[in-house]
């Protein structure tokens, strides 16, 4: 049964953040707030936890998971970007955007799109998410908490616990954080491509 932590959205309690990171490092799945909606997260190196997210969301092998990063300094380890793409990312980070990028050879195959060799990356503007990432010291493998058959993410942490209490190790109550997922921008080609229009303003990516 999932544990339930109520964490202050503006001043996250360091004790609870540390306990949450311990759960993640031990292979636990966590539902946590971001600046767009609640998300599912697991340790980047844990294949079993990743497969559990796939099962919960009924995702196929072509789904692009997202690396949730604390800042852009982690970008070069996992993705290849040219100067134009980097400037676009920097000007919209942190924020409710997921960028589809070409993966580097450092990225395990299970984390990227099997044909295109791409992955999603983003830096959230949410105190709880950033505190988790800072304590973890590396990106968090993440996916929007959209259940099969739904078009929007779950928004109420109490509903999340009731629905997924036997499939998660932790639900973080960080208050309401919206019900619209990120805007997804593909930056792997010559021009940006809008994959999904969400809560991030996409005007800067449209010619």
Estimate percent helicity: 25-40%
Q: Low-confidence stretches at least 5 residues in length (pLDDT < 50)?
A: none
CATH architecture: Alpha-Beta Complex
How would you classify the quaternary structure?
Answer: single chain
Under CATH, the topology is which?
DHBP synthase
Alpha carbon gyration radius? 16 Å
Question: How far apart are the termini?
Answer: 49 Å
Question: What is the total tally of β strands?
Answer: 11
CATH C-level class is Alpha Beta
CATH homologous superfamily? DHBP synthase
Helices, by number, come to 6
| Succession of helices and strands | EHEEHEHEHEEHEHEEE
Q: What kind of sheet is the major sheet?
A: 11 strands, mixed
What is the mean pLDDT? Answer: 91
Please, how many domains? 1
Which percent range describes the beta-strand content?
A: 15-25%
Q: What structural category characterises the helix and strand content?
A: alpha/beta
So what's the overall shape?
Answer: globular
């Amino acid at each position: 049964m999932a544990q339930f932590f109520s964490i202050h959205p503006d001043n996250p309690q360091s004790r609870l953040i540390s306990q949450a990171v311990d759960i993640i490092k031990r292979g636990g799945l966590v539902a946590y707030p971001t600046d767009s909606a609640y998300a599912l997260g697991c340790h980047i190196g844990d294949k079993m936890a990743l497969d559990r997210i796939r099962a919960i969301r009924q995702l196929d092998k072509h789904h692009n998971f997202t690396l949730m990063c604390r800042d852009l300094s982690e970008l070069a380890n996992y993705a290849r970007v040219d100067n134009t793409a980097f400037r676009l990312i920097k000007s919209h980070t942190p924020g409710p955007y997921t960028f589809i990028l070409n993966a580097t050879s450092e990225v395990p195959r299970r984390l990227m799109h099997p044909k295109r060799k791409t992955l999603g990356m983003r830096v959230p503007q949410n105190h709880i998410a950033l505190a988790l990432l800072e304590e973890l010291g590396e990106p968090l493998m993440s996916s929007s908490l959209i259940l099969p058959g739904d078009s929007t993410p779950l928004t109420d942490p109490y509903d999340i616990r009731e629905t997924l209490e036997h499939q998660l190790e932790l639900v973080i109550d960080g208050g309401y954080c919206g019900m619209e997922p990120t805007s997804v921008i593909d930056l792997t080609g010559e021009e940006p491509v809008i994959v999904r229009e969400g809560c991030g303003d996409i005007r800067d990516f449209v010619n």
